[in-house]
């Protein structure tokens, strides 16, 4: 009987953890969007991490923001009955209502491109006076808060810097009012090259063959022919003449050497001292 009760407690505990885990996941507004589901899977390494930032307004009024990725925000002095808060705002000067829920993880929109992701938590707490004009819902004209978290590529850090950029609350519709935030993380990187380039691979292969050629050739000549010193280098006669062959090729292709027949030297004739005897050419004259 005691064993059965123990098993029942374990079963209840496992069911409770499964329910909490299911509730903790982000839920898309459009569950049939396969592209958004793939983008949401990219955020899995950030799940459970907490990011905090203090935003100071121009009047020196400060707010503390806490962001969780697809897990509810949990603070010591904040109780979230629904366990769905993704972004929480804390106003330390407001004693009556210090906490404001900016967005919930069960109402998520995900967009993405090259080296960036946009995570949006919607259905936050209602505005008191801002963004309440022009709403289509006649029964409840108060718009709800939402947070746009722009996740940009940082290839060196999984948990990079987090900052609240600004709050846009001047619009007349709920979609025009939002909190803009920025988070740097490697999960947003899509074009980071982690492999070697083709040139590097070619150089590695070339030098590997060159080293193997020298080592194997030197060992072979030393063991078989008993060569020593520089004579151990394989094909040493070719390598000694290689420089001369290159010089001859350069001389043939690049240098213009003119022959005697093509020289532009003027004709000077034959000097008298170069004639050994007088040539008799009278018989060549016509009779």
TrEMBL record:
PANTHER family: CATION-DEPENDENT MANNOSE-6-PHOSPHATE RECEPTOR (PTHR15071:SF29), MANNOSE-6-PHOSPHATE RECEPTOR FAMILY MEMBER (PTHR15071). Keywords: Disulfide bond, Glycoprotein, Membrane, Signal, Transmembrane, Transmembrane helix, Transport. The keyword Membrane applies. The keyword Disulfide bond applies. Residues 24-191 form the MRH domain. InterPro entries: Man-6-P_rcpt, Man6P_isomerase_rcpt-bd_dom_sf, MRH_dom. Residues 1-22 form the signal peptide. This is MRH domain-containing protein. It is found in: Endomembrane system. Its main location: membrane. Pfam families: Man-6-P_recep. The chain crosses the membrane at residues 199-220.
